[in-house]
């Protein structure tokens, strides 16, 4: 008989505490829900920040202080000196008239310019504390200007008119003067052939303080001419949303005012009674906002003539009625 005993050691290992399967599933679900919610919220915030309207983002970008008067004088001096060597550009006195109107519009103008020209950067600088928008028929010029000058606001325009169609277009506009071609309206919804209805939507919502017309081209019968630009400016000036509560007057400058198209269309839509002065080849009009959604008196007080619309296709008859 053996007296020895075999000693056995039993080791108790602590059991790892595991979450019940149901609790673990709920925990993973909560984590996934939090991650999804955070991702969705980030996406929405990003979308909102990038979808700010052009008017709001560009308005904030345009809030620069005005340039000092002596800098304005220097810019005008050198621009006039350069322009004096080339025909067709603004003269020193014409530039001074536009500059004075911008300077009176403080703080900052809402300035709409038809045409990208040699003076484009000058207008933008003179109105540094306002908002300046350019419209031009050349996509190439707009693209080049945007590449060379960051932040400039310019849009291309598709003109459907020709200089040699002016008389027919005026006759059609008179026939629709109480509907599509009325003086107070939102041109975005207009079918008037003289109205520009394909501009960016916010262009129609801005109360323009000053409109400068130096485009499109109008030196040949096949060129677009400035009939649509002058008609559109006349409607925008009369159709301000703010009315008399903001600035009830709009200054409209028309370059090449001595040419037939510009003179006839200005007499028809900007009106001789609103002409406050001419400097060189620049006509200066001041247009009052018209209250209400329509105007029964037409564009000008003298436009309600006894001319027979059926005979108005004759340039001589139409001219005599203007």
TrEMBL record:
Topology of this chain in the membrane: Single-pass membrane protein
GO cellular component, one term: Golgi membrane
Entry annotated with the keyword Transferase: no
Pfam families: IRX15_IRX15L_GXM
Keyword field contains rRNA-binding: no
Annotated stretches, region: Disordered: 292-322
Keywords: Golgi apparatus, Membrane, Transmembrane, Transmembrane helix
Cellular localization per UniProt: Golgi apparatus membrane
Residues spanning the membrane: 27-48
Annotated InterPro entries: IRX15/GXM/AGM (IPR006514)
The protein, known as: Polysaccharide biosynthesis domain-containing protein
UniProt GO BP: xylan biosynthetic process
Chief location of this protein within or outside the cell: Golgi
Origin species: Trapa natans
């Amino acid at each position: 008989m053996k007296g020895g005993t075999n000693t056995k050691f039993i080791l108790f290992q602590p059991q790892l505490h595991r979450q019940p399967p149901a609790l673990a599933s709920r925990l993973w679900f909560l984590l996934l829900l939090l991650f999804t919610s955070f991702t969705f919220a980030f996406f929405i915030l990003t979308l909102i920040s990038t979808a700010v309207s052009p008017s709001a983002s560009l308005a904030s970008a345009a809030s620069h202080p005005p340039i000092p008067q002596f800098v304005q004088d220097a810019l005008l001096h050198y621009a006039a000196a350069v322009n004096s060597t080339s025909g067709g550009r603004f003269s020193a006195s014409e530039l001074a008239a536009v500059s004075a109107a911008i300077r009176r519009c403080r703080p900052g103008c809402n300035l709409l310019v038809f045409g990208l020209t040699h003076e484009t950067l000058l207008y933008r600088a003179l109105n540094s504390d306002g908002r300046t928008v350019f419209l031009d028929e050349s996509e190439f010029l707009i693209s080049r200007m945007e590449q060379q000058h960051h932040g400039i606001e310019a849009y291309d325009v598709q003109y459907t008119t020709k200089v040699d169609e002016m008389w027919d277009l005026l006759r059609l506009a008179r026939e629709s003067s109480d509907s599509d071609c009325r003086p107070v309206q939102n041109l975005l919804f207009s079918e008037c052939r003289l109205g520009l209805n394909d501009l960016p939507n916010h262009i129609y919502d801005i109360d323009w303080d000053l409109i400068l017309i130096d485009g499109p081209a109008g030196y040949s019968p096949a060129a677009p001419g400035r009939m649509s630009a002058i008609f559109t400016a006349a409607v925008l000036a009369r159709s301000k949303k703010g009315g008399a509560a903001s600035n009830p007057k709009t200054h409209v400058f028309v370059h090449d005012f001595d040419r037939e198209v510009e003179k006839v269309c200005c007499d028809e839509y900007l009106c001789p009674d609103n002409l406050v002065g001419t400097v060189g080849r620049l006509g200066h009009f001041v247009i009052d906002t018209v209250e209400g959604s329509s105007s029964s008196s037409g564009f000008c007080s003298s436009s309600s003539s006894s001319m027979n619309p059926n005979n108005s296709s004759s340039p001589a008859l139409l001219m005599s009625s203007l």
